[in-house]
Design brief:
7-stranded mixed beta sheet, binds S-adenosylmethionine, 4-stranded antiparallel beta sheet, 2 domains, 11 strands, 248 residues, Rossmann fold, alpha/beta, 7 helices
Length: 248
Amino acid sequence: MAANNVHYDEKLAGVYDQMYPIEFDTSLAVDFIAALAPAGGRVLELGVGNGRIALPLAARGFQVHGIDASEAMLAVLRKRDARNEVVTETGDFTETGTGLTFDVVTVVLNTFFVAVTKEQQLGCLRLAREQLVANGKFILEAFDPAPYHAMEKQDFSMRHLADGAVMLDTLAVDRAHQLMYGTHTIVDGGRPETKHHVLRYAFPFEIDLLAELAGLRLVDRWEDWERNPYTARSPRHVSVYERADAPA
Ligand SMILES: C[S@@+](CC[C@H](N)C(=O)[O-])C[C@H]1O[C@@H](n2cnc3c(N)ncnc32)[C@H](O)[C@@H]1O
C-alpha cells in the first residue's frame, strides 16, 4: 500500500504532541491496555508513532513492539526511549506482520482508518488476528463516522501549536467512497507547506463484519477508555476483539 500517512514527515512529527496533547487521555488508554495484558506481557501497537502509548506501557514492564510507516515518527520514539525498551519496526501494518505473537495488539486514535480501502482494512485485521496468542485481545479505538458522513461542506479549522505557530486544517468528505480528505498547513514564519492525508472511515458494524472475516469476534465496546457505555450518541468507540477460535 502507498502508506498515505507517511505524511508524518519531520515537520509534522515535530508538532505531533501539540496536535494530540499527551495529557489528552493517554494515561487512561494505558491503564485500559495494561488491564488486558498479563503482567510483563507482550503488546504490539500498530502505528506506534512517537511512543505516546508504547513508552508508558514499556515503563510498566510490558514487552512492547511497535510498527510504523513513518521513519520521522519512529526517530522521535527512539530518541525518547533512552533505555531502548520498545522494539520498533518500519512497515505498513496492512501488509506486514512482525512474525511474532502478542497478548494484546492495539490500534488507537483512528489509526485504523489510514487503511484507505476495505481490502487494506481487512489486511490489517487479518494481521492483527495472526499476531495474537490464543487468548489474546485486539483493541481498536476509532471515531464514530456519523457526523462526518453527514457533512455537506468542507470544514476549516485552526489550532494553536506554540507561540507564533498555528496549524490550518481542512476536511472534506466523499460519502460515496467513505473517504475523508484532510490537509494540515503549519504557519510558523517559515514557508507554509500543506500536507494531505486520506482516511477511509468505517462504521462500527462494518468494522465488526471485517473483523469476523478476519477471524476475530467482538468482546466489548465502550465509549472511551474509562469504560463508559457505548451509545448511539458516542463520538467514538474503544472496541475489544478476540480470536474467533478462543474458548468463549
Ligand atoms: C495518529 S498517529 C498515532 C500514533 C500513536 N499510535 C499515538 O496514539 O499517538 C498515526 C500513526 O500511524 C502511522 N501510520 C499511518 N499509516 C500507516 C501504515 N499503513 N502502516 C504503519 N503505520 C502507519 C503514522 O506514521 C503515525 O505515526
